[in-house]
Amino acid sequence: MARTIATERPAGFDRTSRSLRLADGRQIGFAEYGDPQGLPVLAIHGTPGSRFMFALTDQAARQRRLRIVAPERPGYGLSDFRRQDSLAGGASDLRALADALRLHRFALIGVSGGGPHALAAASSMPGRVALLALINPVGPVADCHRRIRMSKPHRLVFTRLGRSGAACAAFFWPLRTLVRVAPGVAYWALKQRVPRSDRMVLDREAVRANLQAALKEALRPGIAGALQDLRLLCAPWGLALRDIDVPTVLWQGSDDTIVPPGAAYDLAETLPNCRLDVIQGAGHYWVFTQFERVLDAAQAALRGAMPRTGAS
Questions:
Q1: Where are the domains of the chain?
Q2: Torsion (CA) 163, 164, 165, 171 in degrees, nearest 10
Q3: CATH number of 2-304
Q4: Pairing between β-strand 27-34 and β-strand 17-22 as defined by DSSP bridges
Q5: What distance in Å separates the CA atoms of residue 39 and residue 64, rounded to the nearest whole number?
Q6: Model-level pTM?
Q7: In what side-by-side order are the strands of the sheet with 39-44?
Q8: Are 122 and 240 within 8 A, CB to CB?
Q9: Does a cis peptide bond (omega within 30 degrees of 0) precede residue 48?
Q10: Once rounded to an integer, what is the mean pLDDT over residues 241-250?
């Protein structure tokens, strides 16, 4: 059970930074955006990521009377690190947060590396999730990489390097230093890895400021959260995907160079109640200028959901 919720010192990209103290003494950090009295949406950040990622939803969420709750996984931002052996381990933290905030029925958004974590949460409390929205999610690469098309870089990262703690550390430690001392260089390097459609998104000042702040906060306490994410995402998930029948929409950019689109398509085919929306010509970052599309789906699902007083 959760114990207390505290308000932290407000940070640049959120209205309030808050923390939840769990019964085991750990702290979970989160931020809220949109309408504080609105319909609830749990929004799960990417890898690496932090609570700041969803600051760009604030105005659109207010207009739709949605309350965005953006928690951080262990090792990121304000959240204390705890080793997890499976995706299901993190789902218990999300349940504790939902219970503490009395979110009995909510939409659940998972972006990129947050997608599998959102799936684990939906699997653990299906009766409470009105909609599962997956945005360019990492798919179950460990299970499907032999039957899908993957680029050589994707295959290298998700089937080999992602499973090596030493290889990942050799990437994330220099990245952490770079985002602290030369964020512009780190951002330039990111833009070299993505298609033109993504570069047009990343050239927007609001997007640049948001991504730089989110990444800096994600890696501020160290790289343990990022290393754990890749270890869990690249291993077999241990989730009964065919049993997750929560209403789901999966959006995937056809030209994504950050995560393998084929794995996302495989995931959409496996989930029993999933609609796949392929955005032709889009890359990985399209959602930063089109969050309204996702929020509209969440709003519609929450307005159509029958109110429930119980929790599962």
A1: 2-304
A2: -100
A3: 3.40.50.1820
A4: antiparallel
A5: 9
A6: 0.92
A7: 2-7, 17-22, 27-34, 66-71, 39-44, 106-111, 129-135, 248-253, 274-279
A8: no
A9: yes
A10: 97
User: Residue 68 is encoded by which pair of tokens?
Assistant: 């965005």
Q: Are 190 and 212 in contact (CB under 8 A)?
A: no
| DSSP secondary structure, the chain, as one string | -EEEEEEPPP-TTSS-EEEEEETTS-EEEEEEEE-TTSEEEEEE--SS--GGGGGGGHHHHHHTTEEEEEE--TTSTTSPP---SSHHHHHHHHHHHHHHTT--SEEEEEETTHHHHHHHHHHH-GGGEEEEEEES----HHHHTTTS---HHHHHHHHTGGG-HHHHHHHHHHHHHHHHH-HHHHHHHHHTTS-HHHHHHHTSHHHHHHHHHHHHHHHTT-SHHHHHHHHHHHS-----GGG--S-EEEEEETT-SSS-HHHHHHHHHHSTTEEEEEETT--S-GGGG-HHHHHHHHHHHHHHSPP-----
Q: Which two tokens stand for residue 163?
A: 């499973």
How many residues in the chain?
A: 312
**Residues sharing a CB contact under 8 Å with residue 15, sequence separation 6 or more, in sequence order:** 31, 32, 33, 58
45 has a pLDDT exceeding 70: yes
> In which residue are the tokens 């799960």 written?
44
Is residue 68 pLDDT above 70, yes or no? yes
Cα separation, 274 vs 294, whole angstroms: 14
pLDDT at 164: 83
Nearest residue to 301 via CA among 264, 252, 246, 250: 246
Mean pLDDT of all residues belonging to the chain: 92
